[in-house]
Amino acid sequence: MRYDEQKYQRLMREVRCEEIKAVEVVRLGRREEGRRRPLLVKLDNEQRKYEVLKNAKNLKNTKEEWAKRVQITKDLTIREREETRKALEALREKRERGEQGWGRRGSGNTGSCKQPDNRGESNMSETEGVAVEAGGGVMGCQVTQQPQTKKRRASENGINTAEGEEEKNGMAEKAKIDESYFASYSDIELHRTMIEDSVRTNAYQQAIFQNLDVSGKVVADVGCGTGILSMFCAQAGAKRVYAIEASKIAVHARQLVHANGLQDIITVLQGKAEEVELPEKVDVVVSEWMGYMLLYETMLPSVLYVRDKWLKPGGKMYPERAVLYMALGEAQWITKYEEGTYDFWVSLNHVYDLDMSLLADHAVSRYKDVVHVHMVAQEDVLSFPTAVCDLDLTTISVDALHKISCPFSLSSMGSRQLNSVVLWFDVFFPGGHKLSTSPDNEDTHWQNTVLPLATAPLRQDTQVKGQLTITQDLSNHRFLNVDLNYRVDGGEEITRTYKMDDNCNDNDF
């Protein structure tokens, strides 16, 4: 149930505040079916209700249907409040009893910004410290911790324990982050999201099938997930495939390999990429390591570790090159969200007779400090792109990924309102095959990455110049910090700082 926002906002402005009544309306999110967001609609009489209904999408124009939906919303609100009350009471009781661990988050929830696919590290199941073999191979992986890490463990390089308690605490914290991270990749629904992204899956299949690099060769699949890329390699004639997966999904990957009769070719190894020992060097390294904005989740270091340790000289990387692009944008949903969230906090005064308007400006400003993952329409890209980084995956080092900084100069196309910077990436495979997440192409589960800006008018060929810097977050090596300095037409320099964390995937406007 989605509304025509422009008509809706116009109706709200027409109603005088002293005459309004508040009515709750339920609106389904754009992308998650069944997700409900309360919205306060200002109405002065029954006729006004009918007008809002008439201008809403996918909503029947009947007062009876309206009444039913309002009642359903009230019932849901009552039930949710009761559940919240019970949960708080349980926490209080637990705290009073002095139980350890009260109020901690479950280790399996890493938030909504999960980027798809297999990851190459260690996520242990009940068979802790044992290799999960899909037949054929004898090699196992020695895993010292239970869990799940998609990429490289923060403690992988080893820190001298004599350096003090601070280093130990840092290692323990990073291990917890990795454990929670890999737990998220045990979710089969997450792998479904990635596999049903036909742009992604077909690009890998075509690159593997249409090149001769795999046939008769030994392959390592880093972060194999369900094992689909490993099975593509087997179908393409690979001699042997070592499928490395850190999360518990490795158990299902082994079963799938047997179900497809490929156990003599594919060996599934459950463990972190940095800890698994292979019986031989490999000719090809395959991995789908890309995160939002290419680098989110920091899995690439694990792939490079396998490259440096196990890839033969002259071996192939799939993909072999990755390019991150940026361009100017006018994201229409940013303006809609700002208007909606501002009206929400202001309108609470008419519902509960409480002034909550102080939070309106805070909510809008906070929204602009977060990186957003959202599709941007082709017509809302306001400039030609420029490359932020161009990574040669056959030679780049892990140290070069810690900080990526790029000066940029972008020229606007036409007269529009600048309110964002849009980022996307392309990866290239041997043989010229390309996987693109550009707004010009079909949507992917990676979508586009959007950095909100203060709105500024642009004319034809307006110059926007500045510097974009991406660094790993010190508190969580899976997260990223983005610093942006820019000037519009040589004006005053503007500095923006963004955090790319579990809150980035809020594409439900």
Automatic annotation (TrEMBL):
Which domain of life, per UniProt?
Eukaryota
Picking any one GO biological process from the record gives:
methylation
Q: Which PROSITE patterns match?
A: SAM_MT_PRMT
A Pfam family cross-referenced in the UniProt record is: Methyltransf_25
Q: Where is the composition biased (Polar residues)?
A: 110-126
Alphabetized InterPro entries for the sequence: Arg_MeTrfase (IPR025799), Methyltransf_25 (IPR041698), PRMT_dom (IPR055135), SAM-dependent_MTases_sf (IPR029063)
Could you tell me where the Gly residues compositional bias lies? Answer: 100-109
Q: Which SUPFAM superfamilies match?
A: S-adenosyl-L-methionine-dependent methyltransferases
> Where does the Protein arginine N-methyltransferase domain start and stop, copy by copy?
321-489
Domain named Methyltransferase: which ranges?
Answer: 219-315
Keyword Electron transport found = no
- State whether keyword S-adenosyl-L-methionine applies: yes
**Chain intervals for the UniProt region annotation (Disordered):** 91-128
Name a GO molecular-function annotation. histone methyltransferase activity
Keywords tagged on the record: Methyltransferase, S-adenosyl-L-methionine, Transferase
Protein name listed in UniProt:
Protein arginine N-methyltransferase 6
Q: Which organism is it from?
A: Petrolisthes cinctipes (Flat porcelain crab)
